[in-house]
Design a protein that fits this description.
single chain, 120 residues, 50% strand
Length: 120
Amino acid sequence: MPAVPAFMLKKLYLKGSLKNTEEGFEFQVRNTLAPANITAMEPLMVDGTVYPLADTVVVGKEPMAATAISKEHPVTFGINSVVTMRVKGARLAAGEHTVVIGVVTKEAGELKWDVSDTVS
């Protein structure tokens, strides 16, 4: 399986998209690399705190619980598609945060990368 360098994966993250919501926090990624089918997600981590998949919703064309993503029910991540990751139950303090994102794709296998962004 082809490896995707971390520096390329970091470009997927939409800088400035990390923000608090009424229910928690969210951020966005845009696929600028190649079409992919996400078959699993790892729990998101922010500043070393792991957020359970049960509290995460992936919003593309339709909202989908992160726990529902599987080989049988993948999330199609087309080129130039934007996906919002929403985490319920926790809000982030103002300032810079490190977000670690991990997914498994049919095409490239396991992908994991970290990004930094600021909540104002």
